[in-house]
Design goal:
The protein is α/β, with parallel strands linked by helices. The chain has a single domain, classed as NAD(P)-binding Rossmann-like Domain (Rossmann fold, 3-Layer(aba) Sandwich), CATH 3.40.50.720. Strands 3-2-1-4-5-6-7 form a seven-stranded parallel beta sheet, with helices on both faces. Strand 1, helix 1 and strand 2 form a beta-alpha-beta unit. Helix 1 packs across helix 8, helix 3 packs parallel to helix 4 and helix 4 packs parallel to helix 5. The N and C termini lie far apart (about 50 Å).
């Protein structure tokens, strides 16, 4: 096997949550191009259908499944539909998640709890559902999309940062539980130019963020997808329990203060 051959996922079957837009879409495209059959999951059926259709147009295999990861029944249905369509599961990308800034004195504990469920509990349950099939196949790969916010110390992000920090540590712990059959890693993106970020960013804010980033530019979804591709392929066979920081070199938040 040549070095480049190790960057393929031939015969793999991957579930990618949050695949209807942004980072999830980019990861789905990358996995399909590398040879995997891809199950694109997100809340909006039209979004994942469109992504799956683009993959098929490019010569890949993909289906779209509507799934709100906050709903346990829909998580179970997603895994069942994947097995029905492709017969196995070898890769899981827990990409769905998110959350904005908050005041710790105004955000209710119920909202805080919902954020933990959205970002951490859903990933835990999907892992529980997929891991037995990976063990049965004799191999597996799980990637959790966390955030640079998990390690930054900053005001106003106690909800989101705490949830992503929990997901980061969960990734490390599950890697120990599942080795040597299943590798578990995480990616911690910095600011990525997705529709969500671009929708709230002015030219002035962009300039400040770029200036605060050592590489003097923001990331895009493909930057994260390429890291996810590396972690999913035999090229990273000796990597588990690690957090890959893809953030332009930032060691603290680049957002304007």
């Amino acid at each position: 096997m040549s070095l480049l051959d190790r960057f393929t996922i031939d015969e793999g079957v991957a579930i990618v949550s949050g695949a209807g837009k942004g980072i999830g879409t980019a990861i789905a495209f990358a996995y399909a191009e590398a040879g995997a059959k891809v199950v694109c999951a997100a809340r909006t059926q039209a979004d994942v259908d469109a992504v799956a259709a683009q993959i098929r147009q490019r010569g890949g295999e993909a289906i779209g499944i509507a799934c709100d990861v906050n709903n346990a029944t829909q998580r179970e249905a997603l895994v069942a539909a994947t097995l029905e369509a492709f017969g196995k599961i070898t890769h899981l990308v827990n990409n769905a998640g998110g959350g904005g800034p908050n005041s710790p004195l105004k955000l209710s504990w119920e909202e805080f709890d919902r954020s933990m469920h959205f970002n951490v509990t859903s990933a835990y349950h999907l892992t529980q559902l997929c891991a037995p099939h990976m063990f049965e196949a004799g191999q597996g790969n799980i990637i959790n999309i966390t955030s640079g916010a998990a390690r930054y110390i900053q005001r106003g992000f106690s909800r989101y940062a705490s949830a992503k920090a929990a997901l980061t540590q969960l990734s490390r712990m599950l890697a120990q539980d599942f080795a040597p059959v299943i590798r578990v890693n995480a990616i911690a993106p910095g600011p990525i130019q997705t529709d969500a970020l671009n929708g709230v960013m002015t030219d002035e804010i962009r300039q400040i963020m770029e200036q605060n980033t050592p590489l003097k530019c923001l990331g895009d979804a493909e930057d994260i997808a390429l890291a996810a591709l590396y972690l999913a392929t035999p090229a990273s066979r000796w990597v588990t329990g690690k957090i890959i920081e893809v953030d332009g070199g930032a060691e603290s938040s680049v957002f304007p203060t």
